[in-house]
Amino acid sequence: MVKKPCPIYLFVIVVALFMVSCARLPPRPEPEPLPPRQPEPQIQIYPTTRTFPDLVALIVQPGDTFSSLASRFLNDPSMNWVIAEFNGITSLYPGQEVIIPLHAFEKGGLSFKYYQTVPVISYHKFSEDKADVLTVKKSAFEEQMRFLKENGYRVITMDAFFDFLDFKRPIPKKSIVITIDDDWYSTYEIAFPILKKYGYPATLFVYTDLIIPGGKTLSWDVLTEMSKSGIDIQCHTKSHRNLDKRNGQESFREYFEAVKKELVESAEIFRKRLNKKVKYLAYPYGDTNHLIIALLTKLGYRGAFTVEKGSNPFFAHPYRINRSMIFGNFNIQDFQNCLAYMSDKDLR
To answer: What is the per-residue DSSP string for 201-229?
Structure first.
């Protein structure tokens, strides 16, 4: 009978055979070293607004508008046009890069390619259905005001216009001033509601002798109402006499005293009736001379208007401002021809 080997001997034999087999294997290669761990990329967070001494550079955020940005950085939402014109854009979108100038640029409307001019237009009377040289139909006036709105013109106040002339502030490139001469009731009845509809300021030049209770002219009560609603009431003298000519056998002294009375007494009436100091004059018939201009300067008038056709650059004479009359037989192209807002003439 053969004896079975002891289990312990079998275990020793298996271990010995395993060691012998391992000794015959090639050496195990060393593991490749792991590459150095790359640092996590740093996410750059850029500010949405950077402020410099003369400008603000920003990235438009959702909800930003020209008016909201103008209110925030220029303290005046009505200066929205500054941002649009400086950047040459008409709309904003989130992520857009925009620069806001903090100081006036292109003073006097001067640039390398052109200089700005401001058209001043003049009306007299209005009618529902009739037109003549000095009378504009309601439908035509409505069409003209709509044309301004649809073509990007901005109607500015008289004070803003003279601030432009005096280099005090810039104005939109396509600025225009609206004036109306004389104090006919049709201005209140027809023109005034249309001006309010479009939000346009205007200057009404009245001569005080024409204000007759119960007539076809404006009353002081109506003028007061209009004055409170964006219509600037200014002087057209007392009696509408031609300031540039002597009457009959008038001596020079009589002429001087007469024209001085036209300016002084009418201004005093405005002060009493409307509680305002008049600053601007429309010359009756558009005529003036050096004496009248000297009187206006001494009496504190800021400027005066002729009826010479043409637009006005910053170097226009403040007491010889051009105005283009809008006649009742004008079509829309005739009207547009009165609205030149820039000139590329050489200033040298």
So the answer is: -EEEEE-GGG--TTSSB--HHHHHHHHTT
Spell out the CATH class of 109-343: alpha beta
pLDDT beyond 60 at 1: no
Amino acid at position 248, single letter = G
Cα(263)–Cα(243) distance, integer angstroms: 10
CA atoms within 13 A on the CB side of 346: 1
pLDDT digits (tens, 9 = 90+) for 86-102: 898 989 999 999 999 88
Give the dihedral sign, CA 292/296/302/307: negative
Domain boundaries, the chain: 49-103, 109-343
Question: Long-range CB contacts (< 8 A, 24+ apart) of 166-171?
Answer: 167/107, 167/108, 167/314, 169/104, 170/82, 170/104, 170/105, 170/106, 170/107, 170/109, 171/109, 171/116, 171/118
The CATH class, in words, for 49-103 is alpha beta
